[in-house]
Design goal:
The structure holds two protein chains of two kinds.
Chain A: H1 8-16, E1 21-25, E2 31-32, E3 47-51, E4 55-64, H2 69-73, E5 82-89, E6 94-99, E7 115-123, E8 130-137
Parallel strand pairs in A: 6-8
Antiparallel strand pairs in A: 1-2, 1-3, 4-5, 4-7, 5-6, 7-8
Chain B: E1 9-16, H1 27-41, E2 53-57, H2 61-65, H3 70-77, E3 84-88, H4 94-107, E4 113-121, H5 127-135, H6 150-165, H7 170-183, H8 195-208, H9 219-224, E5 231-234, E6 236-237, E7 246-255, H10 259-262, E8 267-276, H11 290-303, E9 312-314, H12 320-329, H13 338-343, H14 360-364, H15 368-383, E10 398-405, E11 410-417
Parallel strand pairs in B: 2-3, 2-4, 9-10
Antiparallel strand pairs in B: 1-7, 1-8, 4-7, 5-6, 8-11, 10-11
Helix pairs in contact in B: 4-15, 7-12
Classes of the chains: A mainly beta, B alpha/beta.
Chain lengths: 138, 420
């Protein structure tokens, strides 16, 4: 395992390959997503990169009607809002991600705790197309 | 256990510009306005040449005004060069952190007279660019790619809070109504209007234009009308969000032993605490702000006080849910009870815990770098009986300010004491 495997950019490089990665501390076993070079629990630097199983539950969410430029460019607006949430992964850590495959007409029907599985969304077109982590109902 | 400051620190003067939208002004004009008001507020006067250090809270003049390195410029503009001048950037907590640096500079013995400023000129940029600039306060690698915005983060915290405590979402609207009520009595406020007045002025405008006049039973009906109060990030609507603002504020700090040279009525900084945190997703709980609890615990310990000793507080209500979480994080109400306090008037001017008598960020405005310093202006006014129609009754001995950067990656809390 090279050092680069734990660098911050490795997370998005893995996403581009369709993988959700994290790290496990070889001293205390703490798992982090995204991956860390120093264990936030015991401060060890004996870390290994791991692949997450991509299964989790919805910890919280919002539906965004006024998007930032990047999401507006991807076609979202007040009439076409999107859901973004925080997902509690089965292995323990939480991660922020877009949540797709939900009916957004009444956000009150979306429930915290609902089971989710990893997927990916592509935003942008042609050469600027980029793959992003997302989750959908399991 | 937090130590006492090794030397006492007093506030001897404050000033602020009006907060709002000022296309004709730059940040220099706003800061000069705040500085001039500060000069007039110092009872026995002061010579700007006595200032030994200057700390300036500013989030991102780089983005908003294409100007970095702001502190020496502002020092020059108020005529205090070559005083050491330092810009402090901790997102929306920049002002509160600048205040803490000023307090520590005096407590350390390094300086006796310190100017603390806060400043942001946000409205020159179009709205979408402002949103993008504010988003720089979040984690650009692991939060922004998910699609989060700042209203979105606080909306997600609101969703978690409402779910965890099965709270009534009307509590959010109640925070906005209360803060606009207070801001309506503050001539420096950007929205110097109660929600009821906003409602009536919308009806008047419709009548003037010959359009059908919208009807709402009361403020709650107005705030629940998606046309009058559109959803920004569910469950937060437009009136749950603080505005984009221009403004500046300034505070003069001196060592306790020198205070009497400046005024017979100083207020003392008796507690100061600051804490940090990682991205929102990393936190054990999404319905509270741990760094705020930690910063306030430190400040209370330093002051030798408890939340019950605080007579009133200015808290960082960048969004309505933020005020509800803050009054719990600061220990004014138990976990899960903050929303009830908002519903039943306990945080109003005549309630048990008056919160944001200035109108808060919500109504007074949120020029981000200025907000943490502007809070001290309200503490000063209330403690000196200068708050006009929004003046609290009784002997106000202790007040608290709470300033947050991002979603709570930075939190800074100060406690003030009036002794005479």
């Amino acid at each position: 395992m090279t050092d680069h495997a734990l660098h911050s950019k490795a997370f998005h490089e893995a996403i581009a390959e369709g993988l959700l990665i994290g790290s496990r501390c070889l001293v205390c076993g703490n798992i982090s997503v995204p991956q860390r070079q120093i264990c936030p629990n015991c401060h060890s630097d004996q870390m290994e990169r791991i692949q997450m199983n991509g299964i989790g539950t919805l910890a919280t969410f919002t539906v965004i009607y006024v998007p930032p430029t990047s999401m507006a460019d991807a076609g979202y607006n007040a009439k076409n809002p999107y859901c973004v949430g925080i997902v509690a992964l089965q292995e323990g850590p939480r991660i922020s991600a877009q949540i797709v495959g939900l009916d957004l007409s009444d956000p009150a029907t979306i429930k915290i705790g609902m089971p989710l599985k990893q997927t990916f969304v592509v935003r942008g077109e042609g050469e600027s197309a980029k793959k992003f982590l997302a989750f959908e109902p399991a | 256990m937090a130590k006492k400051l090794s030397r006492g620190v007093a506030v001897v003067g404050v000033g602020m510009s009006k907060f709002g939208v000022f296309p004709e002004k730059t940040s220099r004009d706003l800061f000069v306005e705040a500085f001039q008001e500060l000069r007039q507020s110092v009872q026995k006067g002061f010579d700007p040449r006595d200032i030994e250090a200057f700390y300036m809270g500013n989030f991102t003049s780089d983005c908003f005004e294409n100007q970095a390195h702001l502190a020496p410029i502002m020092a020059s503009w108020v005529g205090i060069s070559p005083v050491e001048s330092t810009r402090i950037e901790d997102a929306c907590a920049s002002g509160g952190v600048a205040l803490r640096q000023g307090v520590l500079a005096i407590a350390s013995g390094e300086a006796d007279v310190v100017l603390v400023g806060g400043l942001e000129k946000m409205t020159d940029l179009p709205g979408a660019k402002v949103t993008d600039a504010l988003a720089l306060a979040a984690d650009s690698l692991f939060e922004i790619p998910a699609g989060f915005t700042f209203p979105g983060f606080y909306a997600a915290m609101a969703t978690a809070y409402l779910d965890r405590y099965q709270a009534d979402p009307d509590a959010l609207l109640r925070v906005g109504i209360k803060n606009h009520e207070n801001g309506g009595l503050n001539e420096k406020a950007q929205f110097n209007q109660s929600i009821k007045d906003v409602m009536i002025s919308k009806q008047r405008k419709a009548a003037q234009k010959g359009l059908p006049i919208p009807e709402w039973a009361d403020e709650m009906a107005f705030l629940k009308d998606p046309k009058a109060n559109p959803m920004i990030a569910w469950p937060l609507r437009l009136f749950d969000c603080s505005p984009v603002s221009d403004g500046a504020a300034a505070v003069l700090l001196v060592s306790e032993e020198m205070a009497a040279k400046f005024t017979d009525e100083p207020i003392f900084v008796v507690g100061s605490g600051q804490a940090s945190d990682g991205a929102l997703a990393e936190r054990a709980s999404l319905s509270e702000v741990p760094a705020a609890a930690k910063a306030s615990k430190h400040a209370y310990e330093m002051a030798g006080l408890t939340p019950d000793d605080i007579d009133f507080a200015e808290v960082h209500d960048c969004f309505t849910i933020a005020e509800i979480m803050a009054i719990e994080d600061l220990g004014f109400f138990p976990r899960g009870e903050g929303w009830k306090a908002a519903m039943n008037g306990q945080t109003a001017r005549d309630g048990s815990h008056p919160i944001n008598t200035s109108g808060g960020l919500k109504s007074k405005g949120h020029p981000v770098g200025a907000s943490g310093v502007g809070q001290v202006v309200e503490v000063w006014k209330q403690m000196h009986g200068l708050a006009g129609e929004r003046q609290l009754r009784g002997n106000l001995r202790h007040a608290l300010t709470h300033n947050v950067g991002g979603t709570g990656q930075t939190c800074v809390v100060h406690i003030f004491e009036k002794r005479n």
